[in-house]
Amino acid sequence: MSSSRQALIAGNWKMNGGLAANRTLTEAIVSGLNGSSCDVALCVPSPYLAQMQALANGTRLQVGAQDVSPHASGAFTGEVSADMLRDFGVRFAIVGHSERRQYHGETDAVVATKAQRALAAGITPLVCVGETLAEREAGDTEHVVKRQLAAVIHTNGHCISEIVVAYEPVWAIGTGKTATPEQAQQVHALLRAQLKAASPHADRIRIVYGGSMNAANAAQLLAQPDIDGGLIGGASLKAADFLTIVNAAV
Ligand code: PGA
What we know:
Blueprint lengths: L7 E5 L6 H13 L7 E6 L4 H8 L4 E5 L16 H6 L2 E6 L2 H6 L4 H13 L3 E6 L3 H5 L3 H16 L7 E4 L13 H18 L7 E5 L7 H5 L6 E4 L6 H10 L2
The structure holds 2-phosphoglycolic acid.
The site of 2-phosphoglycolic acid has 13 residues, from strand 8.
């Protein structure tokens, strides 16, 4: 982490939760936030945004969504627009998560448009990039992550300094295999250089790491100069583990 950037720890609940369990988990997290100063967000399934808005009200916790429509409004059954998310106090929206790219066919261009919609609504897109195991083994990591980020830079121009980038190697997500701090830092530095070439304000863009970040490995990852926080899946469902990560980011 660099002292010039405020760290961000964002939980990604994915398709987990329920009204009662959400309340218990969120209240436990909120009650443990006092000692920390980093930004903390929970990205929850859309039906729970209203509940999360109420639970986060008056606390340091920020509300996040897991996706946003690339369309503004209209005949798009099942989609949730950026303006609708904003109605529920949403500050962050994950876009381009590898599970969306893989299972829902999201292309780099769609991801870039989603980021654009979020920004237009005053929501910070958490833009996910990352290579698969096959791509890493073929030596394609740099090419893949730069291609994914280039699409977002191209579409969003000077607004690019308002995004957060999440480097999430696909082979590390939900697998218990974490990139080593050195592996992650190497990719974060590449992404930082790419952002610097695109924006004079790149130094303030946060690049967070995701992929089996947990209570045991967070501190080492967060100690790297270009790792500015984490996007946490599995470990965000356990209050104690999530809070350990939050405290490692202070
Ligand atoms: P994980 O998920 O922490 O469970 O690996 C991270 C993510 O998918 O954002």
